[in-house]
Structures are given as structure tokens and as C-alpha cells.
Amino acid sequence: METELQDFESKNQPVVEPAEEPHDEGSGKDERSLLKSDSKLSYSPLVPEDLQELEKKFAAFVRRDVYGTMGRGELLLSDKLLLGFALVTLVPIRLVVGMVILILYYFICRFCTLFAVPYRDDGQEDYAHLSGWRRVVIVQSGRFLSRAMLFTLGFYWISESFRNPDAVEKFAGENQSNEQSGEPKQPAAIISNHVSYLDILYHMSSSFPSFVAKRSVAKLPLIGLISKCLGCVYVQRESKASNFKGVSGIVTERVKEANQNKFAPMIMLFPEGTTTNGDFLLPFKTGAFLSKSPVLPVILRYPYRRFSPAWDSISGVRHVILLLCQFVNHIEVTRLPVYCPSEQEKEDPKLYANNVRKLMANEGNLILSDIGLAEKRVYHAALNGLFCES
User: Fold this and answer.
1) HEC-encoded secondary structure of 280-294
2) What is the DSSP pairing of strand 331-335 with strand 158-162?
3) Chain segment 62-112, per-residue pLDDT in tens
4) What are phi and psi of 250, to 5 degrees?
5) Rounded alpha-carbon distances, angstroms, from residue 170 to 163, 358, 367, 375
6) Calpha distance 266→233 (Å, rounded)
7) How far is 133 from 108, CA to CA, in rounded Å?
8) What is d(CA 351, CA 344) in angstroms, rounded to the nearest whole number?
9) Crossing angle of helices 77-112/223-230, nearest 10°?
10) Which of 29, 81, 284, 344 suits 354 as a labelling partner, its CA being 20 to 30 A distant?
């Protein structure tokens, strides 16, 4: 894949002004927007053949709905009329209702955390460790209002299925390394494929777990307090402090805590590290599997006819607008049995991660891909070059 990317880049002759120190995936530069073109990078115009070549190499991020690449494709007259009608009727209603739900939950969280002391540990601060009626109200209202938000966005029905443990064990038995241990099947983390920001709303409505978020999220209006009530793990990947544990260290501690304490919030992890178009499964990062604890795999799919809810190669604003214009949206959820690692998997996090990934791909009919966030950035940069020059 590395050679293919170099061939493609040399073919399209990117011009870089003046050279900067290259970034790596663990640095703070990772957090720049994936959907904005790099001001230091400009591509020569691409022809249709180049676009087809791009789509073959970066198939995991290609949009195939009626709105086309980056949501900028040519629309039929009927599609334009539907879009225009939804913009003046459906979108305003959904925006108002969505804001009401968000503000309502913010005030619920504010009321439940009055005079409460947040849990603090290693720079983390949250209200997920509250007990009694406060925690019950936060969780139950959060689940209900998350489902209400999905309903507002057109997800009127959610199809959920549960895989037969025997069928999963039969698949797992094909791998000698995956002999399930006899430990109690209490999951410490939920492992899910990542398709859209909508994934978070579904998981909040289903199990209300904690998530991993940038430290800046804690300071956002409305969202900041809600994220603390969720028990989000705030990370700052650019930190170089000697006492900084890093993303993997913090996540591992939280997973172990959830495994040992049933009252601790379960954590939700997207080990792919970025979103896809929903048909592929990218390589898993091992941070979710370092704790050697059981995990609960969940597979999300978003069937569509016109607009794909997947957040792959489309800007955030355009995605939200087109999502609000869609009259009906669909989500399918496949829940697998709790996966308990074998002794060999406990000693080898990469093996543990790969086996869970293969299981999810098999049960969810997903295609295994060997590309990741770095390749996604190359694809987005090339697309930005195409549309800027056209």
C-alpha cells in the first residue's frame, strides 16, 4: 500500500511549500480536520481515470449514494426537488427539536450534578462515578433522550439482532489460539466498528457507556457537561509530559476498572481509529485489548437508498444537512456474545485484536481492509485537489 500511495502522489505531482516536520499518528497534528484541504498541499487536476484509481485503492472511504463523491455529485431533477422541499420543511423542525433535546438533557445533567463533587484522577474529571438517584436519572434520561434524538433524525426503527453463541464459538474454535476461558463473561468494554458520529448516539441510547474524547470537548458549551456525565476519557495526544500515560494507558485503566467494579462505567471503543463507509473493517489498534479483559463486539450498519449516513469522505456540515433532509434513515445492529480472551490472546494483544476483528468481519459480512487513517488523509487531500481544480 505504501508503494501505491507513492506512485499515486508522484503521478499527480503534489506541490509542498516549505517543508514541515512530518507528523506521526500519535502527535497532536493528528487532530486536524480530515475534511479540509491542507493549505500547504495542492494537487494538479485529476481526470476520471485517476478518480477511479483512487476509489479502488481507498474503497473503504468511497461514497456510493446518489450524492456522489464528497456529496457533490450531479443530482437528478427529482432529487433536487426532494432536497429543496426537505430544506424548507423538515430541516427547520428537526433543528429545533434537536436543540430542545440537547438543552433539556444539559439542564437535567446540571440539576443532577448540583453540589456534587466530580471524580478526579490523573487529570480526568467526570460525574459517571456518582451513585444513587443522581446516576439513575442521568443514565435513564440520557438513554431516552438519545433515542429521541435518533428518532428526530429519521431513525424511527432500529433493527437489532443477537448472534447465537454456539455459532460464534464454532467460528472461534477454528483458531487454536481462541480457546475460550472459563472466566465469568462480564464485558469491560464495548468494541464497535466506526461508521458515523451517529454511532455515539446509538450506543448512548443502548448502554450509555463512556467514550474517548479530546480534552477540548470537556470545555464545549452544553456538550462539555454531558461528556463528563458520560464519564468520557479525555486524551491529549500531543502531550509530551513525562507523567503522561497516553491514550492506551488511560483506556487500559478504565477497562480494568469496569471489569473489576460493576458500578464503574463501561467504556465504548472504536479500535479502527476512524470512520469508513460501513462496508469495510480497518485494522484494530491494540489499546482496547491491553487490559486482557472480556469485550462485547457490536456491529453497526446503515442501509440506505439515497443518502448514506456514513461519515467517510464528506464534510461535516454537508453531512448534517443531507442527513436532516433524509425523510427516513435506517440502522441495523448486530450484537455478538461476550468475547473472553484465551491465555495466548492475553499475552498477545495484537492476536486478541485480530481475532475479534476477524469475528466481527465474519458475522457482519464486512470486508477486511489493510488501510487506515493515514491513507484516508491521502484520499481526502486528493479529492480536495480534484474539486478545487475543477
Assistant:
1) EECCCCHHHHCCCCC
2) parallel
3) 998 999 888 888 888 988 999 999 999 999 999 999 999 999 999 999 999
4) -65, -45
5) 12, 13, 20, 34
6) 11
7) 12
8) 8
9) 70
10) 29
Instruction: Give CA–CA dist 287/264, Å, rounded.
Output: 19
The DSSP 8-state label assigned to residue 274 in this structure reads S
| CA gap 126, 113 in Å, rounded | 10
Q: What does the alpha-carbon distance between residue 198 and residue 310 come to, in Å, rounded to a whole number?
A: 9
**Whole-number Å distance between alpha carbons of 268 and 191:** 6
Residue 99 corresponds to which cell in the numbers above?
436543540
Instruction: Provide the residue type at 199 as one letter.
Output: D
Q: 152 Cβ partners below 8 Å, 6+ apart?
A: 94, 97, 98, 101
Alpha helices in the chain (DSSP H): 2-11, 48-57, 77-112, 133-152, 165-173, 198-206, 223-230, 246-260, 316-325, 343-347, 349-364, 373-389
Stretch 159-170: mean pLDDT? 76
> Taking Cα atoms as reference points, which of 89, 106, 93 lies closest to residue 223?
106
State how far the alpha carbon of 115 is from the alpha carbons of 110, 118, 268, in Å: 10, 10, 28
Residue 49 CA to residue 175 CA, distance in Å, equals 41
All three cell numbers of 257: 476498572
**AA identity, residue 275:** T
pLDDT digits (tens, 9 = 90+) for 197-223: 999 999 999 999 999 888 889 889 999
Of the candidates 187, 155, 156, 151, the one whose C-alpha atom is nearest the C-alpha of residue 260 is: 187
Interatomic CA distance for residues 232 and 235, integer angstroms: 9
